[in-house]
Amino acid sequence: MHDDKPRLLAENHLLGVETKKYFEKLQEKRGIDRTVITHGWIIAYLYHETTVEKKNIYQKDIEKTMHLPRSTATTILQKFEREDLIRRVFVEGDARLKKIELTEKGVAFYKDTITDFEETEARARRGITEEEYQKYMEILHKMRSNFKKEEC
Fold first, then answer.
1. Does an H or E element contain 22, and which?
2. Is the model's pLDDT at 1 over the cut of 60?
3. Which fold has domain 7-149?
4. Domain extent listing, the chain
5. In contact, 102 and 108? CB cutoff 8 Å
6. Model confidence pLDDT, tens digit, residues 34-81
7. Distance, CA of 136 to CA of 29 (rounded, Å)
8. b/e per residue 1-32 (b: at least 16 CB within 10 A)
9. Interhelix angle 37-47/7-29, nearest 10 degrees
């Protein structure tokens, strides 16, 4: 990387690129060639919130949690519906609301995807001690909070 570039931004970008490439290769090995890492995170979020936490999740929750514009969330969720990964179910008492549920195929997709996430993280953590990892996570959280404290 050039010395005239902000190193933090450049290294974060490159780590993201390498992480995505590795994850996508794992997905390809499973015969899943349509998934981008963000889609995997959305499916994982849906699984955790609906199956583990037993919450009703709506499109607006996905938009907020994943920091997605409405149009992007709509496009992704429509894709998931076409692929039978999710279904939208009317909520009793409010015909305007539709909660999002994973289908059996969506749950299976989650299980494959979470395995690939775990393998990707294990690859990234090779040669890194637990202490180094914990310090890195602490620093990342501090950096993220720096953006939440102030607006540009």
1. helix 7-29
2. no
3. Arc Repressor Mutant, subunit A (1.10.10)
4. 7-149
5. no
6. 667 888 899 999 999 999 999 999 999 999 999 999 999 999 999 999
7. 30
8. eeeeeeeeeeeeeeeeeebeebbbebbeeeeb
9. 70
